[in-house]
Amino acid sequence: MAVPLRQKASDGPDRNGDTRAALRWDTRWHSGAISAADARAAVGRFLDRVRATGRVRVPDRLAQDAQLVVSELITNVVRHAPGVCGLDLEVQPDNGQVLISVWDTSPVPPTRRPPDGRRVGGHGLEIVGALSQAVTVTERDQGKQVTARLLLPTASGER
C-alpha cells in the first residue's frame, strides 16, 4: 500500500517571501507494495508540481534522468531489502539541485560493480552514478539511505 505524497514545504514563497526555499515531497511504502513504475510516477508528479510553481526550470531530459535514477534505486530495494522503504524528493532552487533519496531497512550498503557489457543485470548503480553529480549512502537507525544529486540547469542553460 502506498502512502500518498505529502508536501513538506510550501510551493510558494516562505513566510519571509523567499522563493529559494526547497520543495520537498516524500512517500513511504509497506513491504511488497512498491514497484519501479510507482516510483517513476511519483517523481514525475513531483517534478510536474515543481514546474507548475514557476520557480524552477526542470527540462524534460532532467525529469527523465530523475525517473531512471529512482527506478534503478527502487529496483535495488525491491530485490535486496524487503520491508518498509521510502522515497524522499527535494528540489533546492538555491543551489540548483534535485535530490532523490531512497531508504530501506537493510543495513547492507549497495555495491557498485565494475562495468561489464557482457553481464546481464547489476548495472543499476553504474547508471545512477552516470546520471548523478554525486551518490551517497548514509546509515540510518534501521537501514540505509541512498541519495543521488542531479543538477538543475543554470539560467544560461549550462550544467
UniProtKB/TrEMBL annotation:
One Pfam family it belongs to: HATPase_c_2
Annotated Histidine kinase/HSP90-like ATPase domain residues: 42-149
Alphabetized UniProt keyword annotations: ATP-binding, Kinase, Nucleotide-binding, Serine/threonine-protein kinase, Transferase
GO-annotated molecular function: ATP binding; protein serine/threonine kinase activity
Keyword NAD: no
Name of the featured protein: ATP-binding protein
